[in-house]
Write a structure and sequence with these properties.
Distance between the termini: 39 Å
Oligomer: single chain
Strand content: 15-25%
Strand order of the largest sheet: 1-2-4-3-5-6-11-12
CATH class: Alpha Beta
Largest sheet: 8 strands, mixed
CATH topology: Rossmann fold
Number of strands: 12
CATH architecture: 3-Layer(aba) Sandwich
Shape: globular
């Protein structure tokens, strides 16, 4: 099912040599493009409010990424290539639409893709805005700001720790808040700062329910491990693709040329991406939720925010520029605090028009 769009948003099915998917557009054709990449268990729908609020002179372009929304279901995610499928999808779409350069705005999982788009294709971006970004090292199983693996098989990252009840309720297209594991409850408890309720929460839930499910889709396959928490990444699906097992070392980000300016926006009470993420085994291990926790010395929480800051500090030291903005919200600042978010985004866009 495809969620109806807001006024001011146009949707189109776009066929490229890599992927057939839905792409949302706002603004006029002659305006400067702003490409939006969405996060995990979501779709381009989650960017609509931001797209319709873009100032004159800018147009939004937001695809449903491989594995989500109206992207073709047969297009699987090869996790052994890290986020390479999404990087290649984005560049091929970019070329197909005739875009030479654009601003890039990404969030969460989409931001992990954006780190690689910056590293591999820096000349294509007028600016980069990272919103609640996943660490450049990926999600899970690293112990320090340098991204040192917690175990040699990256146990605790990847698809194996996704709650099966959450998956069941997605498959059943449950729209209620009756279960703490329902998609609606997950949005309210993990993605926003309570008691906030998104104005278009129904649309966000519907888009979440359009996530493609399976061992080669969300969340992917898992491999048993002898290391706590006893599962390590498989070869397919989005959660494995953002495992540090498969991502290149992000130190190359500092060496790119040119270096587009970066705006980093995050929430002060983000439970999903933080130095003590609620989704990190190193955070909930001490609670006894998985028996056998080896202790904080062996398996600490991943310092996700600190890893991002280290990479951006290196970027700035090499001649790049970044600005960090912390807002009083959770994982979805563009939805929770749209006026503050848009003020910062619009200023960033306007100051970097080439």
């Amino acid at each position: 099912m495809t969620t109806p769009t807001m006024d001011g948003i146009r949707d189109r099915t776009v066929v490229t040599p890599r992927l057939t998917t839905r792409v949302l557009f706002s603004g006029t054709e002659e305006a400067t493009p702003v490409v939006f990449l969405h996060g995990n268990v979501s779709s381009a729908t989650w960017w609509e409010e931001t797209m319709v609020a873009l100032p004159d002179g800018f147009r939004g372009v937001a695809p449903d990424m491989r594995g989500y929304g109206a992207a073709e279901p047969a297009a699987i995610i090869d996790a052994t290539n890290g986020v390479g499928d999404w990087v290649d999808d984005t560049i091929v779409l970019f070329d197909h639409l005739g875009l030479e350069t654009a601003h890039l705005v990404a969030t969460s999982l989409g931001s992990v893709v954006a780190w690689r788009l910056l590293a591999d294709h820096p000349a294509r971006w007028l600016s980069l805005t990272q919103v609640s970004p996943g660490s450049p090292h990926g999600f899970g199983a690293t112990r320090d700001v340098a991204g040192t693996p917690t175990t040699d098989d990256y146990a605790g990252s990847g698809a194996g720790l996704i709650n099966p009840e959450f998956l069941r309720l997605i498959a059943e297209r449950d729209t209620s808040a009756d279960s703490p594991f329902s998609p609606r409850s997950a949005i309210r408890s993990l993605l926003v700062k309570p008691p906030f309720i998104a104005p278009r929460e129904d649309a966000l839930v519907d888009a979440l329910l359009d996530t493609h499910l399976g061992d080669q889709a969300y969340p992917g396959d898992a491999v048993s491990s002898g290391n706590w928490p006893f599962v390590s990444p498989g070869d397919f699906g989005p959660n494995n693709a953002i495992s540090p097992k498969y991502l290149p070392d992000p130190v190359d980000i500092a060496a790119v040329s040119p270096r587009p300016p970066v705006l980093w926006i995050r929430g002060s009470v983000d439970l999903t991406v933080s130095d003590n993420s609620a989704a990190d085994p190193g955070t909930w291990g001490p609670m006894g939720l998985v028996p056998g926790y080896p202790g904080t010395d062996a398996y600490p929480s991943q310092p996700m925010v600190s890893q991002t800051r280290r990479i951006l500090d290196d970027y700035a030291a090499a001649g790049g520029f970044y600005e960090e903005l912390v807002l009083d919200c959770g994982h979805l600042p563009a939805i929770e605090l749209p006026e503050e978010f848009n003020r910062a985004l619009h200023a960033h866009l306007a100051s970097n028009v080439h």
